[in-house]
Specification:
Blueprint lengths: L3 H9 L1 H9 L18 H24 L4 E2 L4 H7 L7 H21 L8 E4 L3 E4 H25 L6 H4 L2
Parallel strand pairs: 1-2
Antiparallel strand pairs: 2-3
Length: about 160
């Protein structure tokens, strides 16, 4: 388990990781779903932006309130309902960057005890600020793997097995 300062540093790098993952993505590939049953790259980026907003609210409430209720935000309901196909991906990347920049100073100001404060997630039960921070920090790298998978399926990027040829 990483210490808090290492975790906050990893959190601070997330927006740049996402930007680098999609930097050279051709415009035509943003809305293609090359793998049945999986979201397009635009939908993934919108989901990440929405997740940043939700997690920022959760973390702030855990810091400020006594054991707040943290409601589920089901991405399978949100992605189709929130017009992801019509949202400009550049703006979504900017949301991720802005929310992380905003939260960074708050997280850096927290004392170690703040990271043990809890909220109660409506489906996952009690969660500490640390757990919330770990989850949102891992969210972008988790989805970058899916973005890479889509780009590989479109023939835009080579997979590791193809690089050995």
């Amino acid at each position: 388990m990483a210490d808090i300062s290492t975790l906050i540093e990893a959190y601070s790098c997330g927006a740049e990781l996402l930007r680098e993952a999609v930097l050279s993505t051709p415009e035509f590939s943003w809305d293609v779903a090359p793998i049945d049953g999986k979201w397009s790259i635009r939908q993934v980026v919108c989901h990440l932006a929405d997740g940043e907003i939700v997690y920022a609210d959760r973390m702030k409430r855990v810091i400020a309130e006594e054991n707040p209720t943290l409601f589920e935000a089901d991405p399978d309901l949100l992605v189709p309902a929130l017009y992801c196909s019509q949202r400009p991906w550049e703006a979504e990347l900017n949301v991720v960057d802005a929310v992380r920049t905003h939260m960074l100073s708050i997280l850096q100001s927290c004392v170690i005890e703040d990271f043990q404060r809890t909220g109660v997630h409506s489906t996952d039960g009690p969660m500490t600020l640390r757990t919330l921070l770990e989850r949102i920090t891992g969210h972008i790298p988790h989805h970058i793997a899916f973005i890479e998978e889509k780009l590989q399926a479109l023939g835009i990027r080579k997979g590791a097995e193809q690089l050995d040829d």
